[in-house]
Design brief:
With 501 residues, the chain is mostly helical. It has helices spanning 2-5, 32-50, 57-64, 68-96, 98-115, 122-133, 138-149, 155-187, 191-198, 200-216, 225-231, 239-247, 250-260, 263-280, 285-297, 302-317, 319-342, 346-370, 379-401, 409-423, 450-455, 460-464, 469-477, 483-490, and strands spanning 431-432, 436-437. It has one domain (14-437): MFS general substrate transporter like domains (Growth Hormone, Chain: A), CATH 1.20.1250.20. The chain crosses the membrane at residues 40-59, 95-114, 126-145, 165-185, 197-217, 323-344, 350-374, 381-401, 413-432.
């Protein structure tokens, strides 16, 4: 049996779905670790493109005569496009696979990055930021891909690293764009031409990453969607049912709200923080960019740390551990956000901003430690809803607190922290019958099992045709979400059920 469940073609140990049960960060073994590296690099490229304008705003606003309202609108536009794109991306992943869905979107949005170099008015600047922002939907394909490649015990870690290292683009662009701009200007270009030429660097990076995903990527451990569907190994699912089971699962909506005020806050900070330090503390453009970069660059370890914490808590306390860790970390992030708006010195602001950034990014990783378990059939839709929630949060936050002059940036930051604390409270309502919720254990019903939960997404005629078999394997591999304590106390008879093969 061992040879059957773990064929020699995989370099990493796998479970019965051929998902990797180990996460080896510095490996590039196909298909699991190769998919990981392709996903985070392509997502990073999209992040760099989407926020390339932010550190150059003081130059761009002088060139295009942008008002503070124009800048606020453009910031909102940069994250609003991805709201619906993320939901659509989730569905596309469910139906066509993450490889095609991701590379197609990256190539479709790349021209907008090139066109940034010819923006000549507030309207055209807003439009290029809007269309470039669609590329942020590649986050959904990144998380879907990791959830398709990695098993329950390590899926939080894989999602955390892929999302976190991709989000590094928010910090990297704060360093990269001022540097590229300076080099082009020093070569001899005037500053109003130099910022335009600088946009060709992120545009080229984004284009090349799309071709890498297309050429070297693979949808699932056993192959691409198209080949698996053609051979009959993967049934072609119906869009209507995939969509239905995704949007009717209330847990997805709560996670979308939670994510709106961790990732949404992170996106908002990427847009405003360089300008905030530049204006409030009268810093040089390059210095403000470096301080702002430290916020985004914390993703190198903070979001992966959140994913890792989620897996560690799940090992001991099951799904309930994942939910408690998410609530605690996000609430603490909100507290530090409130403090950031109150402190008045440069050194204190930097220290508090870094602590706040680490917590808010860890909360993002913790959120996607829970997402893969909400639905097996509609994983992409739930991932898209949650990811889209992040963008909705960013749009609302910027619209309410950082558009025009109604609030000072300090007041806006404080109010944003209060919103974070409030929007983490609905996590108390998430309940899985087979694992429990934050305040109560699993259901005492005889049949409240992983199998029953995931089988409820399939009709009897679909089960007759074997469409549910992948969900059955997933249910078997999700037994580990009971945790060591819960499993020994509530279900001693099931303790031998394998978490992975």
């Amino acid at each position: 049996m061992e040879e059957e469940s773990q064929p020699p073609k995989f370099a990493l140990p796998v479970d019965s779905e051929h998902k990797a049960t180990e996460f080896r960060l510095f490996s590039v073994a196909a298909p699991h670790m190769r998919a990981f590296h392709l996903s985070w690099i392509s997502f990073l490229a999209c992040f760099v493109s989407s926020f390339a304008a932010a550190p150059l705003l003081p130059i761009i606003r002088d060139n295009l005569n942008l008002t503070s309202t124009d800048i606020g609108n453009a910031g909102i536009a940069s994250v609003s496009g991805a709201v619906f794109a993320r939901i659509a991306m989730g569905t596309a992943c469910d139906l066509f696979g993450p490889r095609l869905a991701s590379s197609s979107l990256i190539l479709l949005t790349a021209p907008a990055v090139y066109f940034s170099s010819i923006a000549s008015s507030p309207t055209s600047f807003l439009l290029v930021r809007f269309f470039t922002g669609f590329s942020l939907a590649t986050f959904v394909s990144t998380q879907f891909w990791m959830s398709s490649m990695f098993s329950a015990p390590v899926v939080g870690t894989a999602n955390g690293f892929a999302g976190g290292w991709g989000n590094l683009g928010g910090g990297a662009t704060q360093l990269l764009m001022p540097l590229v701009f300076s080099v082009i200007r020093d070569i001899g270009a005037v500053k109003f031409t130099a910022w335009r030429i600088a946009f060709f660097i992120p545009a080229l990076f984004q284009t090349l990453s799309a071709f890498a995903v297309l050429i070297f990527g693979q949808d699932m451990p056993d192959g691409n969607f198209h080949r698996l569907q053609k051979s009959g190994d993967k049934p072609k699912d119906k869009f209507s049912w995939v969509f239905y089971y995704g949007i009717t699962n209330y847990r997805g909506w709560i996670l979308a709200l939670t994510y709106g005020y961790c990732f949404g806050v992170e996106l908002t900070v990427d847009n405003i923080i360089a300008e905030y330090f530049y204006d409030r503390f009268n810093l040089k453009l390059h210095t403000a960019g470096m301080i702002a970069a430290s916020s985004g660059l914390a993703n190198l370890f903070s979001r992966p740390g959140g994913g890792l914490l989620s897996d560690v808590m799940a090992k001991r306390y099951g799904m309930r551990g994942r939910l408690w860790a998410l609530w605690v970390v996000q609430t603490l992030g909100g507290v530090f956000c409130v403090i950031l708006g109150q402190v008045g010195t440069l050194s204190a602001s930097i220290v508090v901003m870094i602590a706040f950034s680490i917590l808010v990014q860890a909360a993002c990783g913790l959120t996607f430690g829970v997402v893969p378990f909400v639905s097996r059939r509609s994983l992409g839709v739930v991932s898209g809803m949650t990811g889209g929630g992040g963008n909705v949060g960013a749009v609302l936050t910027q619209l309410i607190f950082f558009r025009g002059s109604r609030y000072s940036k300090e007041t806006g930051i404080t109010l944003m922290g209060i919103m974070m604390i409030c929007c983490s409270l609905p996590l108390f309502l998430i309940y899985f019958p087979q694992w429990g919720g934050m305040f109560c254990g699993p259901s005492t019903k005889t049949h409240a099992t992983e199998e029953e939960y995931y089988m409820s997404e399939w009709k009897s005629n679909e089960k007759e045709n074997g469409f549910h078999l992948a969900s059955l394997k997933f249910a078997e591999n999700s037994v580990s979400e009971r945790g060591v304590k819960a499993d020994s106390v509530t279900r001693p008879s099931d303790q031998t059920s394998p978490a992975h093969v």
